[in-house]
Amino acid sequence: MSGILKRVRDITMATLNERLDKVEDPVRLIDQFLMRTRHDINEADRLYQQYVMHANQMRNQMNQAQELCSRREQQAMLALKAGEEFAAKIALQEKLMHEDKVQQYSELYEKSKDAILELEEQLNMLKSEYQAVYDKRQYYIARMQTVRLQQQMNERFGQYGVGQVDSMFRRLEDRVSGMEWETQGIQDVRRMSGQTMGNINPERDMALKREMERLKQKLDSAKE
User: Fold this and answer.
1) Is residue 154 part of a domain?
2) Is 93 part of a structural domain of the chain?
3) What is the top-level taxon of the source organism (predicted)?
4) Which has the closest alpha carbon to 43: 53, 35, 31?
5) Residue 31 and residue 10: Cα distance in Å, rounded?
6) Is residue 123 part of a domain?
7) From CA 174, how far away is CA 52, in angstroms rounded?
8) In whole angstroms, what is the distance from residue 25 CA to residue 18 CA?
9) DSSP for 78-135?
């Protein structure tokens, strides 16, 4: 029974190792494996308890047969002392029969003990395997949670950065510089106009008036 159990576990481990890298949800596969392993541990534990009970029964049968052997030998001795050889012979025959039982139950008891030791080894293997896979499960869940949190952080804050801040302020800088340039240009024109008007001499002023008068007359003639 324990040999079959071991073969089943070996096949299960091989299947897990082969499929773990191929499935989309490895945690679900691991959970299925853990559930199966827990079931096997419970089955192995029940089988272990049955073997322990069976071994105790074989030991009791062996001890009982040994006790009967000693008792029949004592009875044979008493019968011989009393001169009853026939009774002594029957007691010795029963002793030999119980000696056979001692041998038989002793062999069964030894086999049961060997099976118990094998089952103990299997149980320890299953429990160690279960714990190792469970620890790996917890570790990979923690890693996947870390990855998910990192992805969320990248999605939420990935749009911000020094480069984007520089780009945003660069555009603002260009806009402000344009406004400053436009304002400064208007101021320069006004300043130049003021300087030009202030530097006109009297002769130039008379020429300017004559020119203005000529243009007005020209406009009036065009209207007629």
Assistant:
1) yes
2) yes
3) Bacteria
4) 35
5) 17
6) yes
7) 89
8) 14
9) HHHHTT-HHHHHHHHHHHHHHHHHHHHHHHHHHHHHHHHHHHHHHHHHHHHHHHHHHH
CB atoms within 10 A of CB 105: 20
Q: How many domains does the chain have?
A: 1
Query: Residue 68, exposed/middle/buried by CB under 10 A (0-12, 13-18, 19+)?
Result: middle
Structural domain boundaries, residue 120: 1-159
**Tens digit of each residue's pLDDT, the chain (224 residues):** 445 455 455 546 667 767 666 767 778 888 888 998 899 899 989 999 999 999 999 999 999 999 999 999 999 999 888 888 898 999 999 999 999 999 999 999 999 999 999 999 989 988 998 998 899 889 888 888 898 888 888 887 765 555 565 666 677 777 777 777 777 766 665 666 555 555 556 777 787 777 777 777 777 777 66
pTM above 0.85, yes or no: no
